[in-house]
Task: structure prediction
Amino acid sequence: MTAPLRLRLDSAALVSNWRHMAKLSGNAACGAAIKANGYGLGSRAVAERLAAAGCRDFFVATWAEAEALADLGLSVSVLHGLRAEDPLDATYARPVLATPEQVRRWRPTGRPCDVMVDTGMNRLGVSPEEVGAGLLDGLVIETLLSHLVSADEDVPLNAKQLAAFGALRGRTPAKRMSLANSAGIALGSDYAFDLTRPGIALYGGRQRSGHDAIRQVATPEAQILQRRLVRAGQSVGYNATWIAERDTEVATLNLGYADGYLRCFSSKGLASAGGVTLPLIGRVSMDLTALDVSALPSLREGDWVTMSYALPETAALSGLSQYELLTGLGPRYDRIWA
Result:
């Protein structure tokens, strides 16, 4: 069954973005964060395309996300570590151990793992002091990781975290070290270490000047359910927040906040068809959104419009983060890769 919503997904843009991040990473390997179902675009489809392009290191949040990729034979790291409920015998991914209890749980397996060290985020990770006290002794560590707090800003904390993480070089049995996310990669070569972990930049997010070459990957499209003439003085949508100043042709789309197109776009969002920009009018409701289509007399029920969704610009318009814009897109879209 064809859905009345679709996401146009650009394979060439995805691969181009990864290659740009790889180039900025210098001599470091460039991995890919594909957690949250590939930032909402489909982790399997993303992983297959990036693996074909040369990516060798993938990062997910949970073991369920890793298991869904098990048959692809990828090198996958589970960022949320190893709970008591998680599989000790799984061979399709490595845990990123983040607590002393997780270390104790994993050590008897003798198998490779990754380890997260907290250098300032105060979220997940063992402390540098615990590392210095020998917590990681005896582990087979593939990658030692940390995570930057504010890499998208020019703040002293970036250099502080860099120094704290760099001080651990040679003090653990880790084969590699990894600090930089998408924004961190653009901070400079000192932040790259041995492996970088871009996320949002792969999917079209731009956070720093080094991201200027990043291309849009995901574009939502919605189908028109009805076109109607709204007379001057009449309103459209809940609470009558938009009132027609003149007779206006209005199209109602099969799109709403249940699909991740949130109420913050009310009377702000834009769409287009045939190169013509169409303003959103009134409130975005759960499943429906209205456009002023007076400029396109030929647009009819069943036609499709393209929603403006370039991540940096749409984040500025909506007040949402670029991450929210992607991961909030719901399951009712047909995801169509080209």
The mean pLDDT is 97. The longest helix spans residues 11-24. The longest strand covers residues 218-230. The radius of gyration is 23 Å.
